[in-house]
Amino acid sequence: MAKKKMSSPEFTYLKPPRLVKGWKWLIEWEEFIPGTTDRTRIRKTYDLNRACFITDPEGREARAQYILSEKMKEWSDGTKRKDLAASVRGSINIMDALQIALKFKLHTDREHTRITYSSFTAIFTKWLEDNNWHILPLSAFDKAKAKQFLDYVLLERKDRYGKPVSNRTYNNYIINMRSLFYELVERDYIQENPFTGHKPRKEEQKLRHAIDQEDSTLIARYVFRNNRPVYLAILLISHCGLRLSELRRLRSRDIDLDRGLIILAGNQTKNKERAFITIPASVIPTLRKFELQKIPGQYLVFGLALKPHPTTCCGRNTISDRFREMLQEMKKAGMLASIEGYTAYSWKDTGAIAMVKAGLDILAIQKHLRHKDLSTTQRYLQSLGVVNKDVRDFSGVIFRLPEEF
């Protein structure tokens, strides 16, 4: 039997058995080297070169074809080959497997996605090293070890403010690690995802803070005087329902003031679907004053330093941070009594409430905010504390109240 090692950093299917006729006859096929993802070539003669066969060519051919057909049946057993592949691929080092999974996750044009998975992988890798589990084969990392990692996140990890991670962050660890390991399940490196089946922790529903009418006017004027790009941002968030991530990908050519539309491609939106967003007529004159038509069409509106840029968008938190700084300035100057709960995203909430107060139909609001279904819009408005007008105006009698009331 002859063996020849063939490196295979990426999984490839094994080559099927074949009959080799040379100065000696043999059957050749490939197998995995136990404990690795390398392939090895196996060659066996099966006594085909004995004198009794050499002197009987027809018998030799018949014997060779019989052995080949039996070997081919064994090789063609799809279930057996899949189990073999899975067991061998599961023996790959867990650190190497993580890099394979991460490679597929990074194959996206979404910067936030790349940052997220790179960060989670780095944290998980450090934890493996601290526990001396970085030498484990992938198959040895089971659900119990995944639970130990999640316990570490819950009990020992801190957020950027030095506080224990929130239930929402904990749940994000489950979601992102499960998604990362799914890349390995999908490619048969493992059969079961160790991060599947872990119970998420109940998240406390945030009380959304829309900006009240008096504060919104005061804040908008202050932002207008101190930072025009941020003013443009809150204008688009509040009136058009744009998300901060969409603002960062917004290009000058996407805004058509003549038609009153913002048109976003799938690679610019959250759900990766093309979007046609109506610009309220009341805000178009203000948008024209920004002279967006003078910016080259391919330029990002919110580029570096919040200025138009041909290739590089502003930082992920730049708009939010600049807005927060101005809120803090206003509070320090005594212009605002409280800024608790006010964020750049509050402008979307403020716009939604204004639409409800103006009498817009909930279906129109759903379409404008680009919610997938009506229930999402209903939950969204409920989280903002919007009163159900139909219930409030209900005048029917469920039962007659006692007269003394």
Describe this structure in words.
- With 405 residues, the protein is an alpha+beta fold.
- It has three domains: 18-76, no CATH class; 92-186; 213-389, hpI Integrase, Chain A (Orthogonal Bundle), CATH 1.10.443.10.
- The protein is built from 16 helices and seven strands.
- It is elongated.
Give the tags.
16 helices; 405 residues; 46% helix; disordered N terminus
Strand order of the largest sheet: 1-4-3-2
Number of domains: 3
The CATH class designation of the largest domain is: Mainly Alpha
Strand count, sense and closure of the main sheet?
A: 4 strands, antiparallel
- Give the count of helical stretches: 16
**CATH architecture level-2 label of the largest domain:** Orthogonal Bundle
CATH topology of the largest domain: hpI Integrase, Chain A
Short description:
This protein is of the alpha+beta class. The chain folds into three domains: 18-76, no CATH class; 92-186; 213-389, hpI Integrase, Chain A. The protein is built from 16 helices and seven strands.
Fold topology:
Blueprint: E1 2-6, E2 18-21, E3 25-32, E4 39-44, H1 51-54, H2 57-76, H3 78-89, H4 94-105, H5 111-130, H6 143-155, H7 167-186, H8 213-226, H9 228-240, H10 244-249, E5 255-256, E6 261-264, E7 275-278, H11 284-288, H12 318-332, H13 346-357, H14 362-369, H15 374-383, H16 389-392
Antiparallel strand pairs: 1-4, 2-3, 3-4, 5-6, 6-7
